[in-house]
Amino acid sequence: MDTELSFNDEIANVMYATHGNPIKDCLQCGTCSGTCPAVEFMDHTPRVIIGLIRAGYKDEVLASNTFWSCASCYHCSVRCPAGIDIADMMYALKRYSMWKGQHQEGLIGPVFSESFVKMIVNSGRSFEPLLAPTYIFKNGPQGLVQEAQTATGLMLKGRMPLLPKKIKGLKKFQNMVRRIIPIGEPS
Amino acid sequence: MKQYAYYPGCSLESLATSYNLSTLEVAQKLGVDLKEIKDWNCCGATAYFPVDELLAHTLVARNLALAEKDGLSDFVAPCSACYKNAYFTNSYLKKDADLAEHINYALEADGLHVNGTMKIRHLIEVFIEDVGLDEIEKKITHPLKGLRVAPYYGCQLLRPRKDHENVENPQFFENLLSALGAESLDYPSKTRCCGGSLIVTNRKAALDMVQILLQDAVNRKADVIATTCPMCNVNLEVYQNQVNREFGTQYSIPVMYFTQLMGVALGIKPGKLGIGKELVSGEPVLAFAY
């Protein structure tokens, strides 16, 4: 029988390690929204997002900035009386929206994540200056000046290395990555 | 002597070098043998999970596999984000045979295999549980008398684990600070989030979150905010100036790693603890010990 998955089930399917998480058990109590320290920066509160997912409002959910405003502090997750790991669900929504290429325009989050993964695949290590272009131009000229000043301060204090580090076993590391996501053939 | 697999994480080689320096100094002083994991890779912080869940777990698992290969039983991370990632990947490996098989298929290409048998520890747990407060207290030469400290736990040291003694109002950090002779404050936002990586992806939101933490510490007349995580430290310290510009405030409150405070109380020279590398000077704190 050919059945189309509900949006609810699609989201549950991208929560592999937590076996789908019991989103369907949500009692709409709002503990998550009352707990969230970033809630005032979200288009919809976490409680509303779960309600929209349950009701199948896929476009509204994907168009919102809610999950990209989640800082992964997991306060909602430990307080949820229904045992839903809401922060993990926010990650699932990020993944889903990136796979579908459908997310609010102008957000830094998706670009930042993608650049971060590319950087790790190329070197095995994180190196802040390589990530800077994904966000420093987004907060206007004043923001750019502030970031530049902060970076200079850090460099003078010996807290900003000038050269990125690479792990030694990079080739084998990349072979490992290749077994999970396509990153092109070894050069 | 017991040896621990030490996973410093990327921040400790750049923005948080003083955390690494003070960790190694204090560990040596307390007889904790930290053996750095060879050729470790970035654990992904909060940035892999939005792209691919299996990749995120596999990258964490590679570090676990390297540590297991060394035959050690405890994996120690000073960064709360690294700790949280290692803790959960490790626990999923034990619980979920299917996930473990996928991860090991990928690790095979790197000549590695993971079992998920390690005990994942945050550095602060090792000092408190394995060394013990009594033992630490005995070694204090420069008690931080009268120093008012806001103990900032942050998020991922505690959450999303639910098996802590008290996830909402933990006390272990306060107890450690008291052992150092400091005055540990009742800091209401001690487990409230600092914004984490929102500082780059949603600057306005993060600065707002940091401002609340700073104001709360000022309200309690704290001399210093003590942290257990490089992300928290950077947001509270490096971005203090940007908070001031955004909100027209004049915060100038030192932020230090708990290991730096331990080091000072243990009589280690400030320079060896990376004190002096701050953008908001930590100098005022030293006056209490010397």
Tell me what the structure shows.
The complex is a heterodimer of chains A (187) and B (290). With 187 residues, chain A is mainly alpha-helical. Chain A is built from ten helices and no strands. Chain A is globular, with a radius of gyration of 19 Å. Chain A starts with 6 loop residues before the first helix and ends in a 9-residue tail after the last helix. The model of chain A has no long low-confidence stretch (mean pLDDT 90). Chain B folds into two domains: 121 residues, Glutathione S-transferase Yfyf (Class Pi), Chain A, domain 2 (Up-down Bundle), CATH 1.20.1050; 147 residues, Rossmann fold (3-Layer(aba) Sandwich). In chain B, helix 7 links the parallel strand 5 and strand 6. In chain B, the strands form two sheets. Chain B has a four-stranded parallel β-sheet, sandwiched between helices. In chain B, strands 6-5-7-8 form a four-stranded parallel β-sheet, sandwiched between helices. Helix content of chain B is 46%, strand content 10%. By secondary structure, chain B is of the alpha/beta class. Chain B starts with a strand and ends with a helix. The mean pLDDT of chain B is 96. In chain B, 61% of the residues are buried.
- Amino- and carboxy-terminal Cα gap of chain A: 46 Å
The beta-strand count of chain A equals: 0
Order of helices and strands of chain B: EHEHEHHEHHEHEHHEHHEHH
If you compute it from the alpha carbons, what radius of gyration of chain A comes out, rounded to the nearest whole angstrom?
Answer: 19 Å
For this structure, what is the CATH class of the largest domain in chain A? Answer: Mainly Alpha
Structural class of the secondary elements of chain A?
A: mainly alpha
How would you write the strand order of the largest sheet of chain B?
A: 2-1-3-4
Per DSSP, what share of the residues of chain B sits in E-state strands of 2 or more residues?
A: 5-15%
Count of structural domains of chain B: 2
Total number of distinct structural domains of chain A? 2
Text of the CATH class of the largest domain in chain B: Alpha Beta
Structural class of chain B: alpha/beta
What is the helix fraction of residues of chain A, given as a range?
Answer: 40-55%
Termini distance of chain B? 32 Å
